[in-house]
Amino acid sequence: MANLEVEIVAADHFVWSGAATLVKGFTSEGEIGILPGHTPMLAVLAPGLLEIAPVDGSRFLVEVDGGFFSVDSNRVVIVADNAQLKDSATSGAGIR
């Protein structure tokens, strides 16, 4: 089964990157869930919480203040104005 390669960055710092099975968040059009194989898209990210389900470890939340959300070829890139991990992300993920 394919996974998503996820990268989350804020305007002034790296937040998280790693393999995940699900990314959920809010765009200007409403809530969205991304699974492997999702159609390519680019959307405006609304302020709120992202939920990430990493391949290894427990789901965690990232609080974002808006930005952009892009999906292409099982790669999800989130560029947020500001972003902060809400829960401890687990091993197997790159956290700085």
Which architecture does the CATH hierarchy give at level 2? Sandwich
Sheet-strand content, in percent, reads: over 45%
What is the CATH topology? ATP Synthase, domain 1
Most strands sheet: 10 strands, mixed
* Stretches with pLDDT under 50, minimum 5 residues: 89-96
Number of strands: 10
Q: Could you say how many structural domains there are in total?
A: 1
What's the average pLDDT? Answer: 91
Taking all Cα atoms into account, the compactness measure Rg is 12 Å
Q: Just give the CATH class.
A: Mainly Beta
Given the C-alpha coordinates, what overall shape results? globular
Order of helices and strands: EEEEEEEEEE
Number of contiguous helices = 0
CATH superfamily: F0F1 ATP synthase delta/epsilon subunit, N-terminal
- N-to-C span: 28 Å
Helix content: under 10%
**Structural class category:** mainly beta
How does this model look, in words?
By secondary structure, this protein is mainly β. It has one domain (4-86): Sandwich (ATP Synthase, domain 1), CATH 2.60.15.10. 0% of the residues lie in helices and 62% in strands. It has strands at 4-10, 14-27, 30-34, 41-45, 48-54, 60-64, 67-72, 75-80, 83-85, 94-95. β5 and β6 (60-64) form a beta hairpin. The chain is globular. Residues 89-96 have low confidence and may be disordered. This is ATP synthase epsilon chain. It is a peripheral membrane protein. Keywords: ATP synthesis, Cell membrane, CF(1), Hydrogen ion transport, Ion transport, Membrane, Transport.
